[in-house]
Amino acid sequence: GAVIGDLPAVPDSKTATSGILVDLGTRQVLWAKNSRKSVPIASMTKMLTEFIVFEELEKRKDVTLETQIQVTAAAAKIGGSQIYLDPKESFPLEDLLKAVMISSANDAAYLVAEYFGNGDVNAFVEKMNARAKELKLPCAKFNNPHGLPGDLADDDNYCSAEGCSMLAERLLEIPKAAEFARTKAASIRENTAKPFTLFTHNHLLGVVSGVNGMKTGYIKRSGFCITVTCDRGGRKMAACVTGFPDRKGRDAFVAKLLEWGYKQKPAAPKADGPAQPGDENKNLEDLLNQVVPK
């Protein structure tokens, strides 16, 4: 069964405010610490922003990854990690999504939310909250599409380690989203006077064997957090941890957590087999109910 709370094999687990490690093939939770607790998730928010945009692309015929999106004054004002949008520019949607997922650009996240909210970011945020509820992401509550902190703790974006790992798994099933998640560097504004390179914030990519995503986050109230996906020889894992005081400590812990996870013997898959992609109820809820009392 799952190890609940601090993980003796990886002492740094004491530092995590919450965390989870799941074997995606067998739906087995290997480790869980406050995995359904509501925690601020900072830029890990962008996983949901991106997921909703990809769902919209599936549904709509009038917009594609090539659709040009004009920068707005409101988007250009957003700070933190950014691509320094200028209202004179426009970008293909694909470049904006790359900026959101590879280099965690807050201004790009705001711009795509504004576009898909028909000019109203709050309409997009309502969509985020509605979709999070349908996906049964525990403790999800969103106030913005990028994860920047609000003036008060109540204005931050919240989810849970379980919810973030569930989202990451869904993004892996979208080929373009999975591609962005594993990309270490990419270029935008290529044929302009100011070409710009996007660099990933996920320093486990290319360093820890099998890591192929997904999203980092940091604000003061969340500490350093990360949702990670990993595939070694077809055995897929998802992990999420929050609350580390620094990036190095967070990354070192996740590397050790994955090493520990891959040493655990896979459980036999349940008789009914793993749920198929596209099954709305394929989240970890039933399994976690056996492991982590609500």
Written overview of the protein:
- The chain is 33% helix and 21% strand.
- It is α+β, with helices and mostly antiparallel strands.
- The longest helix is centred in the last third of the chain and has 17 residues, at 247-263.
Keywords:
33% helix, alpha+beta, disordered C terminus, single chain, six-stranded mixed beta sheet, globular, 294 residues
Write a brief caption for the model.
The chain is α+β, with helices and mostly antiparallel strands. Helix content is 33%, strand content 21%. It is globular and about 55 Å long.
List the helices and strands and how they pair.
Blueprint: E1 3-4, E2 18-23, E3 28-33, E4 39-40, H1 46-59, E5 68-70, H2 73-76, E6 90-92, H3 93-102, H4 106-116, H5 121-134, E7 158-159, H6 161-172, H7 175-181, E8 185-188, E9 196-199, E10 211-219, E11 223-232, E12 235-244, H8 247-263, H9 285-291
Parallel strand pairs: 1-3
Antiparallel strand pairs: 2-3, 2-12, 4-7, 5-6, 8-9, 10-11, 11-12
Helix pairs in contact: 1-4, 1-6, 3-4, 4-5
